[in-house]
Design goal:
Blueprint lengths: L1 E5 L2 E3 L5 E8 L7 E7 L6 E7 L5 E3 L7 E6 L4 E6 L8 E8 H5 L18 E5 L2
Parallel strand pairs: 2-10
Antiparallel strand pairs: 1-3, 3-8, 4-5, 4-9, 5-6, 7-8, 9-10
């Protein structure tokens, strides 16, 4: 199983970035793919997730209306479009997978404990 993130970088406040997650080595239909982030000195937090089979999505309150998650099943790719970026969005962003969310565990779909495989992360810095 491999998850590889790309697309991070430095952007000014109000700007946009699109993160990509390339998944390989497992049958994506049985999984949801999530994005988490971790800022220095803070705990890792869930940002968004999408179920690869039925397209169910969830977002953290802090990013609703600004971030959009999408999938391309044919390419085994998941994207996170981030608009209206703020300095507090600065963090390492991780791509991760969850069988539980895909199977219907959707009361707390961005809970860290229900995610298993993780990518190496990509740095997003929002600064002027």
């Amino acid at each position: 199983v491999q998850l590889v993130e790309s697309g991070g970088g430095l952007v000014q406040p109000g700007g946009s970035l699109r993160l990509s997650c390339a998944a390989s080595g497992f049958t994506l239909d049985y999984y949801a793919i999530g994005w988490f982030r971790q800022a220095p000195g803070k705990e890792r937090e869930g940002v968004s997730c999408i179920s690869m089979r039925d397209g169910y999505t969830a977002y953290a309150d802090s990013v609703k209306g600004r971030f959009t998650i999408s999938r391309d099943n044919a390419k085994n790719m998941v994207y996170l479009q981030m608009n209206s970026l703020k300095p507090e969005d600065t963090a390492v962003y991780y791509c991760t997978s969850s069988r539980a969310v895909a199977a219907g565990a959707r009361e707390r779909p961005l809970s860290l404990e229900i995610y298993d495989y993780w990518g190496q992360g990509t740095q997003v810095t929002v600064s002027s």
